Structure formats: structure tokens, C-alpha cells
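Q: How would the C-alpha cells look for this protein?
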Amino acid sequence: MSEIKIAIPLHGKMAARAFHQPSFRQCLTEGGFKPLYFLSPVYYRSFEFDPEQYFELHVEQYDAQYQKHFLLQQLRMLRRFVVVTETTDMRFREFIETKLFDATLTGMTAQMAYVSFIRRVPGMGAFLAWLERRLYVTHAHDEKINQEHISCVLTPGMGNYGYWNESNFAHEAQRLSIPVFTAITNYDNVVNMGYRGFEPKCMAVWSKQMADEVIRLHNFSARHLEITGPVQYDRFVLPLPKGREEFLKYLNLDPSKKTILFAGGVNINHYFDIYHILVGQKEKVWREPFNLIIRPYPHIKLLSSPAWKVLETLFQQAGAYISNPGSIDASGDRTAEFRVDLAFDEGPDELNYLLRYSDVMVNYFSTIGLEAAICDLPTIHVAYDPYTFGLRFSVTTGFLQRQTHNRRPLRLAAARVTKNENELFKALEDYLSDHTLDRDARRAYAESECGELDGRAGARLVEMIKSKL
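A: Here is the predicted structure in C-alpha cell form.
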């Protein structure tokens, strides 16, 4: 039996880390598929790939079309906000804030009233997506799709905010009568990223909770939904080749000490705050010396900041280990980061070890809090900003706490939410003294978001696609 050729367009990190990881590629091969990857230029032009299996995703053509047509920009902007949740409400206000000083008062007021009305009209999301498909047809990959005799397509997300390129690819395939399947790649995609851009043959979601949200918020048919679990988290169930002692020694850390992991976001201020807490006041954190690991958010906006260079030096001087998958060298080379995204290196990635072998994690309500719950790592969310002068609200903890997925009771019950320094010190003391605190809550939260955590999400996704062809 010949292999089934499945095209997979990959533009962003989450998609790459889900659909290009070795375990999923193995699932595809075992299921009789041959994956053909269409990679974003930043990935495709950084390495030498097998020309029979890897192709460039023509992002420049899509971007040129977007920049050329004002109506297309408006359609996508509106589609981002027509799924009405707490998060999209705040994203809309953030959007208005960015325009305030460049627009007239009358123009800004009119746009606010217009968008506020449009986003609450029933069925508007489907209508906007239909208009976009009808008015802005692309043919960037038609020739390659036909030439390679592609049987089906798998895309991340649903063609909503942040997934425009994969959505355009899906439209091209559907116009050629090729079935398109989609799988959600982050737990906030459904509630935070706006209305979907196309109608897939079948959509893979993580859990019953996510399925219910897709049906309610996106008017999606339950008949075309299947619960598979999150593909990228299969790796957290697999055994690790290195034990805790061996791994920490490899990082030049002391296995006999407690280990605190800080996983930060894009806001550089938070790293200064954590330095003040975990280095400047370390005697209040734990009665004995401890290992400190800093995991910066792999975003160029943070890592190219001069302030980060200063902080990195300060943390290293204090004996902290910097786990930096997004490191950028003096020439601006991001190859190391891309290697991690595409899982080129053999064996588990460093984050997998950190989440399983640390004793506690400090964080600011990011996705890694869910990953920590899967790995039974106690998590403390910092819910205050010592300094807010000059900061846009969208980078504060107040903004993060008000997002839909961060207000879920199970998420809050699975971690300690600290409103000041004293609460943070108390939470660190509690978790470092007893790693099992809130264990049941962590498990309940992980299962509510991810469904069955058995390491077979990738296999179920492949089975779903094969059964629908």
C-alpha cells in the first residue's frame, strides 16, 4: 500500500513543536502517512532540508496581499473580536489603546462603536470568514499541491488570529477538493484568538471542555469534532533517560539542594522583580541554599533587549542557571532556537527535564503553568506588579489574571496565587517543604484541559485523520 501524502504547513513555534516532534512524525509513519512540511521562511532558510519532504511556505505572498488590501485587514481585525470572551474584550481595548494617539477623537469613537456593535451580531464570524475566502483568493501553493499528489492537509489552529498563513494554505487545498484537518495547538486558541477561518473536515481538540467551547463560541458541529488530547504533551509521559541527580549535575547544579524554576514572560520588569525576590532576598525564600533556574521566554522582543543582557549577567553572577532555548548570538543568529522548535536534537528537550525535576516553579499565568501541572510540578503565580508606572496594562499581571482561561477555578486551585511578597515567600516555603501539596488539584486541572494524558494524543490524531479519508 502506498503512503498517504499529508501536507502540514508550519509557521509558528507552537505548531512546530507539536507537529514536527519525533513522536508525532513516528505516529504518521506508522499510520501509513508521508508528511510533507511547508515551513515558514525563518525555519526553511535556516537549515538544509530533504527537498522531497520539505518546502517553503510562501508567507511573503500572503503578507503582500494583506498589506495591499485594507478591507482584508478589517475583516481579520473584526474576526479576532467576534468571539466574545473576557480576553477578547481586553484585546479589543488594547487595540483601541494602540490607536488612541494616531487617530482623531471622532474617528476613534466611531470605530469603537462600530466594532462593539459588529462583534455581537449573531453569525458575524462565519460571514466575515466567508467574505475573506470569496474576495481574497490565493494560489501560492496550487502547483506544488498538485505536483506532489497531496491527499490531505493538517493545520494547527483554526485559521484564526496568529494562524493566517496556515489558513490560506488550507483554503488553497480546499479549493482543489483536498480534505483539511485541523488540531488545536494551545489551550487558549479557542477562547482568545477570534473566530475560525475555515470549515475543516474534522477538528481535533484536547478535552470535553475544549469541545464544548468550540461548539458554543465557534458554532462548530459536534459531528466534526474529535477529542484526541494535546499532541505536543505526549513527551511529558515518556520516561526520561537521565535521572534527577545526573541531570542537575550536567547543569552544574547541586542535586542535594532544592531547585526553584522561574519561567518568565515577555515583560522584562518581571525578571527584575524576581531577581529582587529570589536573589536579593534569598534568605527569606528557603532556610538552606537552593538551585535557581531562569527560563526566559523565547521571544526576540525580550532576548534582544539590552536590559535582558544585564539581567542575564546578574543572574549568572548569583549562581543561577539560564535555560535559554531562544538565545540570540551577537550576529542575531537564532539557529539554536529553531533547532529546539523543530526538535532536531535527539532525546528530550531541556524543559521536559526542568518540569519534572524542579521542586517548585514561579510563573506569571502562562501556558507553562499547564505543562507544570501535567508534570506534577507545584506552581506559584505572581499576581502583583511592584511597579506599573509607564507600563501598558496589557503587560501587567492584572491583564493576565482577567483572561478567560486564567480565571478557570481548576487552574486557580492547582497553584498558589500570590498578591504580595509575603504571600510569595509563604507559598515557596509550603511547596519546598511538601512537594505533594495540591497534587490532586494539579491532576484535575491537567485532565480538564488535556483530557486523557496517556501519551497517545498523536496516535489518536493520526487515527482520526485516517478514519475520515
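The domain at 4-65+128-235+454-468 is CATH 3.40.50.2000 (Rossmann fold).

The longest strand covers residues 4-10.

Upvote if useful.
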